[in-house]
């Protein structure tokens, strides 16, 4: 058991679109990520 109740994971992509890895956040309590939070994490993933 991981103890994680809320999580969000986005891909880290190369310039050509190849998946290089993932970036994720998690919470120990139940949590519904907002659209703005999802988009911000995706933006951070694209910046890598």
General description of the model:
- A hairpin with a 5-residue loop joins strand 1 (6-13) and strand 2 (19-27).
- The chain has 48 residues and is of the alpha+beta class.
- It is built from 1 helix and 2 strands; from the N terminus they run ββα.
- It has a two-stranded antiparallel sheet with strand order 1-2.
- The radius of gyration is 12 Å and the shape is flat.
- It has one helix at 35-47; strands at residues 6-13, 19-27.
- The model has no long low-confidence stretch (mean pLDDT 91).
- It has a domain at 1-28.
- It is 27% helix and 35% strand.
Strands, count:
2
- Counting helices, strands and paired strands, the structural category is alpha+beta
SSE string, helix = H, strand = E? EEH
Q: End-to-end distance, in Å? A: 30 Å
Shape: flat
Helix content: 25-40%
The average pLDDT score comes to 91
**Low-pLDDT regions:** none
Question: How are the strands of the biggest sheet laid out side by side?
Answer: 1-2
Number of helices: 1
Could you tell me the strand content as a percent range? Answer: 35-45%
Main β-sheet description: 2 strands, antiparallel
Q: Rounded to an integer, what's the Rg over CA atoms?
A: 12 Å
Offer a concise description of the structure.
This protein is an alpha+beta fold and 48 residues long.
